[in-house]
Amino acid sequence: MKSYLNAGSALLAALVLLACGGAEDAASNEGPPQSTPDDGGIGLADAEPGTFEAGALDAQPQEDSGAEPVDAAAGTDSGTGPGPGPDPGPPAQYQVEMVYTTANIGRSYNTKADVQKVFDKVGDVIGGKSGPKFIGWQEIGEGDPCGASCEINALLARFTTAGGWKTVHPNGKKPGGGSELVKVPITSKGANDTISTRATFASPGWAGVSPTRFVVVSFHKNRNLSTINTHFIAGAWSCKSNVAQRKDYWKQAWKVLKSEVATEIGKGRNVVVTGDLNRPRAQDSCNPAWDPSSLNARASVVGGAGIDYVFAVPAVGYKFVVSKKADGTKKQGVIDLGIDGHNAHWVIGKFVAN
Predict the structure, then answer these.
(1) What's residue 44's pLDDT?
(2) Whether pTM exceeds 0.90
């Protein structure tokens, strides 16, 4: 009996030693964990729920270094966490109040001093307003009583580079060859960027009736704004002589203007069109009913009067809002030029994201 007890004690001691040795082997990391029938042969029988990482059972506890935890690198969004923040929308500089003016200076004057007064009147009114400013001119260098270049010189003398003004006065190419300075320059201030400009042929010249007509497009990248300025042939809608040809030329120019607007809108740009369209809003015996806003599906007339227009054409995702005074009236007005039958017209507004 004693021998059996001794044998049992020896066997128990051997089992204890064997268990200790196995624990040391597991901690020593000198070999892979042994499989048992309970773990399916993968060495994970004793793993805690949720810890099935490769090598997790072999890892040793590490001493806390006291360092702050490091954020994990961004991974694929599983869709279970919070979504991205709200879309910040277009930059703020796209959505500020701006001043838009159309000004046909006419030709009924006698001296250079007379025409200089016209530019001074526009400068006195528009120059004193805050925000970026854009002026579309018509009849600059068109049969000037004071000489071929006196009007552009008078314009530049008032709206100076030193004063922060920029005037674009491009050459337009004619279909039959050659080019000429357009009669519809654009002046701006506060756009704060390089201006890209083009002049597109609109209708042919006609001796004694009309110069070659162009549509000028000036893009201001930092404002996401294209200003377009033009002047159409006269007499098409006022029962003048050779009315069929006049209407043909007018319709050519209208088609070009619509195309230029559509091009800019297609690029995601907001558009303002200024110009003397030589077609009144009101219907009469010479002017069938028409809708000036047919210029574009997104267009609206926001300023001007008679045959002088200011259109706003917001890009997709924007709308145009005419600014208002404290009493609720619109911020728009008229400048009496004192010559010819035209006045200058201005309006203040902004393009805002929907």
Answers:
(1) 36
(2) no
Using left for φ > 0, alpha for ψ between -120 and 50, and beta otherwise, residue 43 falls in left
For 274-290, the pLDDT digits (tens) are 999 999 999 999 999 99
Q: Is residue 159 part of a domain?
A: yes
pLDDT, position 57? 36
Residue 334 bridge partners (DSSP)? 345
Helix (H, G, I), strand (E, B) or coil at 136: strand
Residue 340: pLDDT band with limits 50, 70, 90: confident
Burial class of 222 by CB neighbour count within 10 A (0 to 12, 13 to 18, 19+): middle
Contact call for residues 250 and 203 (beta carbons, < 8 A): yes
* Separation between Cα atoms, residue 156 and residue 171, nearest integer Å: 17
Classify residue 69: in a domain, yes or no: no
Which string of b and e fits 148-180 if b means at least 16 CB within 10 Å?
A: eebbbebbbebbeeeeebbbbbbebbeeeeeee
Looking at the domain assignment, is residue 68 inside a domain? no
CA pair distance 281, 239, nearest whole angstrom: 16
Phi, psi torsion values for 171, nearest 5 degrees: -85, 140
CB–CB of 99/312 below 8 Å? Answer: no
334 in helix, strand or coil?
A: strand
The predicted pLDDT at position 107 comes to 82
> What range defines the domain where residue 260 resides?
92-353
How many structural domains comprise the chain?
1
- Give pLDDT, residue 156: 98
Q: Is residue 24 part of a domain?
A: no
- CATH code where residue 137 lies: 3.60.10.10
